Fold this protein.
Amino acid sequence: MRLYNTLTRSKEPFVPAEPGKVRLYVCGITAYDLCHVGHARSAVVFDVLVRALAAQGLEVIFARNFTDVDDKIINRANELGEDPNALAQRYIQAFYEDMDALNVRRATLEPKATEHIDEMIQLCQDLIAKGAAYATPSGDVYFRVRAYQAYGELSGRNIEELEAGARVAPGEEKEDPLDFALWKAAKPGEPSWPSPWGPGRPGWHTECSAMSEKYFTLPLDIHGGGQDLIFPHHENEMAQTGASRGQALARFWMHNGFVQIDSEKMSKSLGNFKTIRDIIAQYLPETLRFFLITKHYRSPIDFTTQAMEEAEKNLIRIYTAKQAMEEALANQKWNKTPLPDDVLREFADIKALFDEAMADDMNTAAALGHVFGLVRLVNRVLEDKALRKSEQGKAFFEEAQDALAAWGDILGVFLQPSSGFLQQMRDVRGRRAGIDPARVEALLQQRQEAKKAKDFAAADAVRQELTLMGVEVRDTPQGPAWDVR
RNA sequence: GGCGGCAUAGCCAAGUGGUAAGGCAGAGGUCUGCAAAACCUCCAUCCUCCGGUUCAAAUCCGGAUGCCGCCUCCA
């Protein structure tokens, strides 16, 4: 597998340091609010990475932390008059619910900042001992950025550039505006822990370095997160570990691109903030997951109604083929019609292309293209009356199902029973379109009666009415069915 | 101002040196009482523009234009 490494700004062959085992650490959430679609993307991207690595037979030790003490949490707790820790726990719970809906697997390790205070204090002490950090009279501890030669290597910045933008907040006692907080003295009423510098709490960047070295032999194989974390978060983590331990925190740094909403940056001020919950109230969670993997993970992706509806149609196409295969396999008598060689050849090509796409820096967009290649191939065989009932066709359908299931395991989609999924999809699309299923059923009944009476004009009139409602009638051997257009 | 990214058909989107995947939409056909699904065919002589390198460039280099991100909390 080749992966793009932010550190070297190029794709590199990925080989774990320890054969067969991958040490992966991804920055998780700060638990102060509901997760938005951006969190969903990051979670899905790295979930696919974990699944893709596992599919290659690698054992993935995956840590995803929770920041459960932080300014934002404290501020929000104060606003709501809630205990900061209780608030953080509440949002961690919400995170789990959202991730479960998106079929994002739990990480192997899910360390919380508040459970690693001692380790963070130790890291601060080590950094101070090395001259890489200093404590202030008021009990803050800062990292001495200028003392760390390699600072800026991840984000491609240098000290001079950074100086212009750096600023010192009132009350901070930094030696240099570039320095960042490793430990913050507690203000009255804030959660705090005792430390050599008095009661306080960790700075944001400290936890990832401390927890990484607690749970892993450094360097990590891969450290990941959203693109926005490159600077300053990951740059600072690197500096902390580099200065304290004299070695790299991670070999590969991976960063996913942002989600935009209707071509605009998602932000609270624009009022276009989309939580996962907002979205799955309107669409199936699988639609959101599918949408998120329709584009390469490093590119920005634009969340729009049109894109979501296209994702729905794509999923319907895949699940419809899956269902059609299931129906074909329910057949009992199989004939001897041989499957043409080109079908098997094409099938083999598609499988190879899917693997290639995923091995090339997790190109899920290309991989999905090959899923559709298989869908078309399957439908083509299904279309052939003789082949559909042949022994070799049966074997092909079974292998195609296996391929689809294997790919589904990697991508985390199209894993559900097809008929249930298609039903849910119809319901959710119908709800959005304001379609009343009872009314549809009643009209369908009317049409059936008209058809029975061979009154095709009346039957077509009903169809017309349903069409205007956005309902498509489908006559099947099992009777009439309907879908939302 | 500094750093970085992106520009591919009506829309979405792969493709980083060898002559444009895939999806949606659209047109025609097969199937159907009519439809739908599905299948077949068509739909970018061309990849923002201008130069250059090369036998060969959407792909590399230089320039222009446009859009976006980061530099402050942020996935």
